Fold this sequence. Notes:
By secondary structure, this protein is mainly α. Helices cover about 65% and strands about 0% of the residues. The protein has a single domain (about 5-100), classed as lambda repressor-like DNA-binding domains (434 Repressor (Amino-terminal Domain)). It is built from 5 helices and no strands. α1 (about 10-20) crosses α3 (about 35-45), α2 crosses α3 (about 35-45) and α4 crosses α5 (about 65-90). The relative contact order is 0.13.
Amino acid sequence: MNKDLIPLTHPGEHLLEMLEDYGLTQYRLAKELGIQQTRVMQIIKGERSITADTAIRLGRFFGTSAEMWLNLQQHYDLEVAQRKIGSKIEQDITPLLAVK
């Protein structure tokens, strides 16, 4: 199956799911985290990445780890890059072990 056909899941979608599961609004989350509501909204819309600062706040509030949130973001970013430039990189760069 072509990975490009599988939709990517931005970490904001996970965050939205958690808000829905706990019955929280974006406004309430922003207040609890001490951040602007627009920051939460942009993450949920996939317009903004989860930074280390936000990951620490989310981890503390939800009782998860900051690493979990950063890993979600890193996985998403890596997959976006792979889809965007992965095939070109494979064509342009020869692995060291194949170089003679």
